[in-house]
# Entry
Amino acid sequence: MALSKEDRVRELALLVGIPIMESEIAEVADRFDSLLQELARLTQLDLADIQPVTIFPEEELHGPR
# Structure
């Protein structure tokens, strides 16, 4: 049986040790659901012709610190 979005938030919060008050569950669940929907949209983007951009060029030269 699939978890409701509220139960999913309760389970995730328990797993990562984030305390969430019961009065906040509905709002957090709605925000989490919206985030997952946006991430799903991003996975549908065609990035085949996109070239990577170096954000921290000094790391490329000297390696990570």
Q: What stands out?
A: The CA atoms of residues 31 and 55 lie 29 Å apart. The chain is about 55% helix and 0% strand. The mean pLDDT is 89. The two ends are 46 Å apart (CA to CA).
